[in-house]
Write a structure and sequence with these properties.
The complex is a heterodimer of chains A (415) and B (227). Helices cover 60% and strands 8% of the residues of chain A. Chain A has 415 residues and is of the alpha+beta class. Chain A has 3 domains: 5-191, no CATH class; 194-282; 284-412, 2-Layer Sandwich (Heat Shock Protein 90). The longest helix of chain A is centred in the middle third of the chain and has 62 residues, at 193-254. In chain B, β3 (63-67), α3 (74-85) and β4 (90-95) form a beta-alpha-beta unit. Classes of the chains: A alpha+beta (415), B alpha/beta (227). The interface between A and B is medium-sized, with 21 and 21 residues.
Chain lengths: 415, 227
């Protein structure tokens, strides 16, 4: 539980750790604490061996256990006292409670201030393998476990900072209480009441003086950290703007005599910048239907210089039926872009539900009658209608209310 | 992004709507003024949250054209500050933003609609007119956002059917807006009157503003995380 001596031994001898623990406790009680001394010695000696035994799992033990560890240390202190008493080395019973309280408090404080390296070292032997860090009531966000006491908590872990704080306060209070208890028990306190009061006042004064400095330090660390993050982000943005926007602007200047081309360049850049800002550089057009549809819209826009406004609601994993839907959508968009781009933007609207998806492609072009398509024109007949039907879907062509064409494609997913 | 063409320019005889333009880009404010021309009366403009609040309270425009992104809290801040002294003030959000979270936030704060800055002058004037009448103005993109936000099941005990769900008819209307249809065309297609279309859109706006539906607040997050 505590130094992991039991766990380490258990691992070494390939026996259930529980057996060792129970054994240790029985020993400790039976010998009135002598075994606890042995445990302490073992703790001092074993960790390095332990760390070699289980290097990979060292990191699993975080600060979260520090309450438990502190409690364990307090118990350990108790058993050490019992041991001394058993062997006849004894001063006064008045020592017991102050010492236990103090060891609890000190253990808590050390748990907070220990640098991460040491922490890992003596956390060498792990208790019962991987185990969530927060089982013992402490909280430790992933990645913030190994921080010094003064280190600024990562963004979002203010709660951990508060916890750390309360733990530190509790530890200090315990140690102080132990000291007072000791003095009081020895009758020194009443005699030195005035002196104690004076000391208390001085202590508080010192704390008041020290607090601002400490606070300032924390603030400065926070600011520096933020500045560092900001400058990194700025560098990233600058790099991106340089690669994309500045390049496009250069192109625009060179092609300034060709308005269509300039408009196309501007449109492409706008789209790219938007998707970058929206963080959709993580788009996975080969896996997700929504990304695939947006990708198709972009593709057609680029290829035919038309404007395609895409609105996609919902998402699903791409499967064969949905891939067919994407291909048919590309065809429908291409037709619209070729024959109806003068009537304004081509619109793609897709609604992706849990097990089916529908796509509408609307344009404001001259419109056409699907029945009048000659049989040798394979575009509509094969690439759209045939393709959808082969996958159990449907494709319908209608005239829009104000002219233009609307294509409605629907299919159920196969997964 | 688009054109909800109108029941049109202001009815003959009535005053064109008065507006205040709030945007931190001077170039854009000038552009909007020029494009709107005679179709609306621009009473003034402002480029900071503070100036905007003062101008709106002083000038009492019919409609405020409000940029979503501005230093000092953005459109949401302007709306919440103005609401203290002019709760009846009508706002139309105008932005280049595609970020659903921002757009939904400003609409939930009280804007009666959202259009993108690529909108044409006449369409914008029309949208202003609509907002003055108390109607809602949904661009195709906003309609898509709303359909997305109201998609998916939520546990039945958490549903307030009055606010947390769209009726099939509302869905149908939104779907057509997302496809770029104008109110008039939607009315034609669904065999209902333009007034009914407007009523549906206003009802959706109300739900969007009042629903406590979980997805609305966490919406942008979940959208990025869907797998």
């Amino acid at each position: 539980m505590l130094g992991g001596v039991c766990a380490g031994l258990a691992r070494r001898f390939d026996v259930d750790v529980l057996a060792f623990r129970v054994g240790a406790v029985v020993l400790a009680i039976g010998t009135s604490g002598l075994a606890a001394l042995a445990y302490l010695v073992a703790w001092g000696l074993l960790p390095s061996t332990g760390s070699r035994l289980e290097p990979a799992s060292r990191r699993r033990r975080g600060r979260a256990g520090s309450w438990r560890i502190a409690f364990g240390i307090a118990l350990l202190a108790l058993s050490v006292l019992l041991a001394f008493r058993a062997v006849g080395v004894w001063w006064s019973d008045a020592l017991v409670w102050p010492l236990i309280l103090a060891s609890f408090g000190v253990a808590l404080l050390w748990g907070l201030t220990r640098p991460s390296g040491a922490e890992e070292e003596d956390g060498a032997a792990v208790e019962r393998g991987p185990r969530p860090r927060d089982t013992a009531g402490g909280r430790s966000e992933p990645g913030t476990g190994a921080q010094g006491f003064l280190a600024v908590p990562d963004g979002g872990s203010a709660r951990e900072a508060a916890l750390r704080f309360s733990r530190a306060g509790f530890g200090v209070a315990l140690v102080l209480a132990a000291a007072l208890l000791f003095l009081w028990a020895n009758g020194v306190l009443s005699a030195a009441g005035d002196a104690a009061l004076a000391a208390l006042v001085v202590g508080i004064a010192l704390a008041l003086i020290g607090l601002p400095f400490w606070w300032g330090l924390v603030r400065r660390l926070t600011t520096e950290r933020e500045a560092r993050i900001r400058s990194q982000e700025r560098a990233e943005v600058a790099a991106h703007l340089h690669d994309s926007v500045l390049q496009t602007l250069a192109l625009v200047q060179r092609r300034s005599d060709d308005p269509a081309e300039v408009a196309k360049l501007a449109r492409r850049q706008e789209r790219e910048l938007r998707s970058w800002l929206a963080g959709s550089d993580r788009a996975r057009p080969n896996e997700r239907l929504a990304d695939a549809l947006r990708g198709v819209a972009t593709e057609v826009e680029d290829a035919h210089g038309a404007i395609v406004e895409a609105v996609v609601v919902g998402d699903a994993a791409l499967d064969p039926a949905y891939s067919a839907l994407v291909a048919a959508t590309r065809e429908a968009l291409t037709n619209a872009a070729k024959f109806a781009a003068d009537g304004g933007p081509v619109r793609l609207y897709a609604e992706i539900g849990e097990d089916a998806a529908s796509v509408w492609v609307d344009d404001r072009g001259p419109g056409f009658d699907p029945a009048s398509i000659p049989p040798d024109r394979r575009g509509v007949r094969e690439s759209i209608i045939g393709r959808m039907e082969r996958h159990g879907g449907s494709a319908e062509f209608r005239r829009g209310p104000d002219g233009g064409t609307e294509v409605e494609l629907a299919v159920e997913g196969t997964t | 992004m688009s054109p909800q063409r109108p029941s049109g320019a202001p009815p003959p005889g009535s005053e064109p709507p008065s507006v205040v333009i709030v945007d931190d880009h001077a170039l854009f404010r000038a552009g909007v003024r020029a494009e709107l021309g005679e179709m609306v009366r621009v009473l003034g403009d402002a480029e900071t949250v503070e100036d905007a609040v003062r101008a709106i309270v002083d000038l009492e425009p019919d409609v405020v054209l409000l940029d979503v992104h501005m230093p000092g809290g953005g459109g949401v801040e302007v709306i919440s500050q103005v609401a203290k002294s002019r709760p009846q003030q009508r706002f139309l959000a105008l932005s280049v933003s595609d970020d659903a979270e921002d757009v939904i936030a400003v609409v939930r704060a009280g804007a009666r609609g959202y259009v993108t800055k690529t909108i044409t002058g006449p369409d914008l004037a029309d949208a202003v007119g609509r907002v003055r009448e108390g109607d809602a103005v949904f661009s195709p993109r906003l309609a898509g956002f709303v359909l997305d936000a109201f998609a998916g099941e939520i546990p039945a005990e958490e549903v307030d059917p009055e606010l947390d769900q769209l009726t099939p008819r509302e869905r149908e209307v939104l779907r057509h807006i997302a496809r770029g249809y104008m109110y008039k065309e939607i009315a034609l297609k669904l065999s209902i009157s333009v007034k009914t279309v407007e009523a549906h859109v206003s009802s959706v706006l109300r739900k969007l503003q009042l629903s406590s539906r979980h997805e609305l607040s966490r919406w942008a997050v979940t959208r990025r995380l869907v797998d």
